[in-house]
Amino acid sequence: MNGTIEAPTIEYALLAPMLVVFGAAIAGVLVEAFAPRYLRSAVHLPLTLLSLAGAFALTVWQAVKGVPTKPAAMGAVAVDGPALFIWGTILVLAFVSVLLIKDEEHFVGSAAALPGSAEEEQSLVERAAHTEVYPLLLFAVGGMLLFPASNDLLVAFVALEVMSLPLYLLCGLARRRRLLSQEAAVKYFLLGAFSSAFFLYGTALLYGYAGSVDLAKINLALGSVGGQDTLLYIGAAMLGVGLLFKIGAAPFQAWKPDVYQGSPTPITALMASGTLVAAFGALLRVFWVGLGGLDWDWRPVFYGVAILTMVVGAILAITQTDIKRMLAYSSIAHGGFLLIGVIATGSAAQNTAALSGLLFYLVAYGFTTVGAFAVVTMVRDAGGEAWHLSRWAGLGKRSPLLAGTFAFFLLAFAGIPLTSGFFGKYAVFQAAVSGGALPLVIVGVVASAVAAFFYVRVIVLMFFSDPAADGPSVVLPSRGTAAVVGIAALATVVLGVFPQPVLDLAHTAAQSLFVR
Amino acid sequence: MTTHYLVLSALLFAIGGVGVLVRRNAIVVFMCVELMLNACNLAFVTFARQNGNLDGQLIAFFVMIVAAAEVVIGLAIIVTIFRTRRSASVDDVSLLKY
User: Fold this and answer.
1) Is a pLDDT exceeding 80 seen at residue A351?
2) Is A186's CB within 8 Å of B98's CB?
3) Domain segments of chain B as ranges
4) pTM: predicted TM-score of the whole model, two decimal places
5) A2 and chain B: CB distance < 8 Å anywhere?
6) In Å, how far from its chain's centre is CA B3?
7) The domain at B1-87 falls in which architecture?
8) Which of B55, B74, B96 lies at the smallest CB-CB distance from A180?
């Protein structure tokens, strides 16, 4: 043993966006402990929004000041172009989701009270609220920021858990349909813990192979270490299982519809946007920085996974009768389209186009999906949100504006020109074609056509069928929800009509590639 | 020499993995996940010995902390659903499907 441990140097300025978010989360816990009940949400909301906005400002400042060329914090965290772009995306999406979460009627007053018991009645009468939602959310967002920037498999594992653990809890806190919500939490927790155990064992095997968990050192070892291929291949496969689970790629997609349906809708919006963006950032970094030298071996596997994901997502979405489950399967299919971008990212010249297309797609999809789930929160009947698709019949006749906006989001998911979804798909598919992944693109286009069918089916249902007599009502949105729908619709239009600035930004971010 | 420990760790991981798939009680499923994490720890410590550096031993501490946090969250969720349904069987939670 030659282990003397050196004192680490940490570049606090580079890590400032994360530190702000984690700091605010800890301050939120203190507010929970010391502030009187009636003050809490009044303190939490500005604290949460300000910290997210502040972290975003710091991220922009960092990007303007110049992207560092070396990993920070002793090589543990890489703050490079793609990481900064992903941070900005996650912070904006989280900010928008908080506006949706602000309506506390989505969350249970007292999670410990049994559904339907006197205690629960009492908590409703007292207007009790779990304001812990805000600090939990900030911890999850902090994890999301760290995950795609982690340049070391141990940091990636810790970030994965910091991101997931608060989300497991948040899933179980829905006010209505609490059995579904609790079931979603149990399923997400058990499957999530199972998959992160795989990620960790993969980390252990790669540590055994390379003698380090640092991604750059693992990549270096790929060329020099011989005779230990079993460790390498099994380790890489297990890392892949852990990461693909978080994305919801095909053999590991089963949790997604259940969890998206059961969770409180604002949390679903955050998971469908923020978690997906963070997981794709981490997947790119682990497989291109850490295992880039092995791409001839893992690329065919990703081919298969991408095709399976697109097909499963698109086909199973057709059979859905629940709006949230349908959006979950649509999210699985989009995960498949994004995987095409991951595969197309490759040799140096090809890298920038594919990576920037992928980054643009993540922004476009993130905004649209938050908007779509925000609309879902507004269509309600006596039992809460009206999830069954038959209840959405004739919505276009009752509230044309809302139904029109939702139809627009669905068209953006389908990738119709003049919406952000079109340019996202175009950028990714084009990069894949010039990278030689033509078969994948053909499957992608066919899957998009299948997906377009069920999006259009919902639009037809909303506009061309007669509303049921006891149909759901559209609640007057709170200012937060209205703002979310407005921002999402605006982003979908602007990115669809005038995508160049964001494409340029993504291109600049992708140009510096990953620091190693 | 260290191979025995690696085999033991792989065995523990496999027992945990099979346990997650075949056991019915949510608590036992969760214990199996913890067994998998501990198998990882054993592998880390063994590889640290084999590679002659301390990284693996340090990582084991991180994993223990994460596992402890996971226990807190997991038991909270499982106890809540047990109080609602009077059952901790993972087969009973089947409202969400297809």
Assistant:
1) no
2) no
3) 1-87
4) 0.94
5) yes
6) 22
7) Orthogonal Bundle (1.10)
8) B96
